[in-house]
Amino acid sequence: MKYAITIILTALIVGMGVTAYFKGWLPTVSFNKPQAVSVENIEVLNAPSLAPVASVSASPTAGFTVVKAGGILVFKVYSIDVPTDWTYSKEAAPVGDIAIDKLILTKGSYKITIYQAATGGAPCLYPGDPDQEGPSSRFASFVGITTATGDKLRRGKADGGGTGFTVCELQSGGYGQPTGFGHISVSTPAVPTQTVLDQIDSILSSLKKI
Asked: Of the ranges 43-57, 59-73, 167-181, which one carries the lowest mean pLDDT score?
């Protein structure tokens, strides 16, 4: 009897549940499939802006002008570095005249002249050198200079004084003039400053045979 009552109650509960389902009395629960999210057109607000990285380009300030001159007769074409606080000018003979080429560098009362022309030469003598027969130039003192192409020069002070200097070059038989660049002379005030003389030597050391 006890089991019969249990079976009857269970059947009633199941029957009521089935009836409620088909009558629509029970709420329905639906599960939506999640959709894929597209990030293609999403705008990011308040994003920090990155400053462009500056590219470094080398723009050296040389402080001098490279001047080319010469190349007539037996002399070489050459270049020389002229500082910006110096000026330069060129002179040449008119067409048909005897060939000359002159480059003049100027700074106030200081002047460097490089002169190529058909002129004679002479040995340069310095303290300790014996006298030689024939024309020669003797100097009381000198400063040694090596050019950009390895040429050995001497800026000499003439024996007996004066306000200028003459530049000679080491050749096969000793120092002589003209040099392979031409005759080189330096004019200065009566009392030149060592600073400008050092600058003159630096300019002469930039000479380069081309």
From this structure: 43-57
DSSP 1: -
| Per-residue pLDDT at 22 | 46
pLDDT digits (tens, 9 = 90+) for 168-182: 999 998 999 999 999
Tokens of 16: 């009521």
Q: How many CA atoms lie within 13 A of 144 on its CB side?
A: 7
Asked if residue 154 is part of any domain, the answer here is yes
* Residue 34 lies inside a defined structural domain of this protein: no
Check residue 84 and report its DSSP letter: T
Both tokens assigned to 62: 């040389």
pTM of the model: 0.69
The upper half-sphere exposure of residue 97, i.e. CA atoms within 13 Å in the direction of its Cβ, equals 8
203: containing domain: 64-209
In the chain, the amino acid numbered 152 is K
Query: Does the pLDDT of residue 189 top 90, yes or no?
Result: yes
Contact 111, 102 (CB under 8 A): no
58 lies in a domain? no
Q: Is residue 111 part of a domain?
A: yes
Query: For residue 136, what are its two tokens?
Result: 């020669």
Q: How many domains does the chain have?
A: 1
